[in-house]
Write a structure and sequence with these properties.
Layout: H1 3-6, H2 20-79, H3 86-105, H4 111-119, H5 125-144, H6 157-170, H7 173-183, H8 192-230, H9 238-256, H10 260-269, H11 275-279, H12 283-314, H13 328-352, H14 356-373
Helix pairs in contact: 2-3, 2-12, 2-13, 3-4, 3-14, 5-6, 8-9, 8-10, 8-12, 9-10
Organism: Azohydromonas caseinilytica
Protein name: J domain-containing protein
Keywords: Coiled coil
C-alpha cells in the first residue's frame, strides 16, 4: 500500500457513511497522486519520443521535403509541355508556387527554388514576402495601437512579430494604466440594490480571505508538528540524525511549495498520524485541508499542461491537454502513418501527370481545392 493510499479515509462497515468533506479528501489525494505520476512520467516519455522521432518521423519528413522538391520541378516540366488550356496552365503554375512556398517557408534556402517560384509568379518571392510583411505590419499597428516604425528592415513576418514584441515590452506600464482609466465609463449613481450587491460581494471576499488564512494555518500546523519531531539537533545517533535531516529537508521543501499531501505523508511515515487521525479530524479542519489540496492539484495539473504544451510545440503537434505520456507512441505512429500516406499521394499525383487525361481530371480537382482554400494568389 502506498503512503497516499494509507491516508484514505475508509468507511466503517457498521459505522456512519463518509461525509462529503471526507469523500472530497479521498478524491483529492487520489487525483494528486495520479497527477504526480503523470508529471513524473513526462521527461522519460519525451526523451523516448524524441529518440523515436529522430529514427522514424524525421527520415519521413526529409523524404517528404525531397518529394516536394521533386514535385515542384516535375510540375514545372509538365507545364512546358503542349496541350494544356490556359486554366490548366494557371493551375499548374499555382501548384508550383504552392509547393515552392512550402519548401521555402520550411527553411530551404536553395536559390534554384526561388528562381522556380519567380518563373511562375508576376512578383518575385522576396518582394512578395516583403509586401505580405508590410501588410501585416499595418494590420498589427491598427490592432495594437503600437508604432512599429518605418518600413526599412521589414522583409518577413518574423520581422513584424519581433517589432510587436519589442513594442509591448517598451510600452510603459503607467501609460497602459492611463489608457485603461481613460477607457472606463463614468460611474453611475449607486442605487440601493447596487449597494446591497456590493456589500454582499465584500462579505464573500472577506469570507474567502478568512478561509485562505485558516487553510494556511492548517498547513503551518502540520509543518510545525513535523519540524518538532524531525529536528535533527535533538538526535544523538548519527544515522538517525542523517535520516531526520533528509526528512526535514523534504518537509521544508513541501511547506514552501504548499504541498500538504507530502507533509501528511511524512507525518504518516514518522507515525504522527494514521488514516484514523484524518477520519477523526473535525469538518472545519478537513475543509481547510481540502482547500490546500485542491490548490496543490491545480498547480500540478498546470505544470503537466506546461510540459505537454512545450512537448507539442517542439514536435509541431496540435495544442491540447490531457495526453497520457505513456501513450506517446500512438502519437508517433499516427504521425508516421500520415506522412507515409502523404508520400504515397504525392507519388500517385506524379504518375497521374504522365497521363494527360488523368492529369486534366486531377487539375480540375486541384483548381477547386485552391479556390476553396482561397490562397488569394490571383491566378483565376
Amino acid at each position: 500500500m502506498s503512503r497516499t493510499s494509507a491516508l484514505q479515509v475508509a468507511a466503517s462497515p457498521d459505522g456512519p457513511a463518509l461525509t462529503p468533506q471526507q469523500k472530497r479528501f479521498n478524491n483529492l489525494i487520489r487525483q494528486i497522486e495520479q497527477a504526480r505520476q503523470t508529471l513524473a512520467a513526462w521527461p522519460e516519455a519525451i526523451a523516448a519520443y524524441r529518440h523515436s522521432h529522430a529514427q522514424v518521423v524525421q527520415p519521413l519528413l526529409d523524404e517528404l521535403d525531397a518529394a516536394d522538391r521533386q514535385r515542384a520541378f516535375a510540375l514545372d516540366e509538365r507545364l512546358d509541355r503542349p496541350g494544356w488550356t490556359k486554366t490548366e496552365r494557371d493551375t499548374l503554375a499555382a501548384l508550383v508556387r504552392e509547393t515552392v512556398r512550402r519548401l521555402l517557408d520550411g527553411g530551404d534556402a536553395d536559390p534554384a527554388l526561388k528562381a522556380l517560384y519567380d518563373k511562375h509568379s508576376d512578383i518575385d518571392f522576396d518582394t512578395e514576402q516583403q509586401e505580405m510583411a508590410l501588410a501585416l505590419k499595418n494590420a498589427a499597428e491598427a490592432l495594437t495601437g503600437l508604432d512599429l516604425g518605418d518600413d526599412e528592415g521589414i522583409h518577413t513576418e518574423a520581422d513584424v512579430f519581433e517589432r510587436v514584441q519589442r513594442g509591448f515590452s517598451e510600452q510603459a506600464p503607467d501609460e497602459e494604466a492611463e489608457d485603461f482609466r481613460e477607457a472606463q465609463p463614468e460611474p453611475e449613481p449607486e442605487t440601493p440594490s447596487a449597494r446591497r450587491r456590493r456589500a454582499a460581494q465584500r462579505k464573500r471576499e472577506a469570507q474567502a480571505e478568512a478561509q485562505a488564512r485558516q487553510a494556511t494555518q492548517s498547513l503551518r500546523e502540520v509543518f510545525r508538528k513535523l519540524a518538532s519531531a524531525l529536528h535533527p539537533d535533538r538526535e544523538t545517533d548519527p544515522a538517525q540524525r542523517a535520516a531526520k535531516t533528509a526528512l526535514m529537508q523534504q518537509a521544508n521543501q513541501a511547506y514552501q511549495s504548499g504541498d500538504l499531501l507530502t507533509l501528511l505523508e511524512l507525518q504518516l511515515q514518522v507515525e504522527q498520524i494514521d488514516a484514523g487521525h484524518i477520519a477523526q479530524a473535525d469538518p472545519q479542519r478537513l475543509k481547510h485541508y481540502n482547500k490546500v489540496l485542491a490548490e496543490q492539484l491545480s498547480e500540478i495539473n498546470g505544470e503537466c499542461a506546461r510540459v505537454e504544451s512545450a512537448f507539442r510545440f517542439e514536435f509541431g503537434l496540435e495544442p491540447r491537454f490531457g495526453t497520457d505520456p505513456q501513450r506517446l507512441g500512438k502519437i508517433l505512429e499516427t504521425q508516421a502513418r500520415a506522412l507515409r500516406a502523404e508520400l504515397e499521394q504525392m507519388a500517385l499525383e506524379l504518375r497521374m501527370l504522365e497521363d494527360k487525361a488523368l492529369a486534366k481530371r486531377w487539375l480540375r480537382h486541384e483548381r477547386q481545392r485552391l479556390r476553396d482554400e482561397d490562397f488569394g494568389f490571383g491566378f483565376f
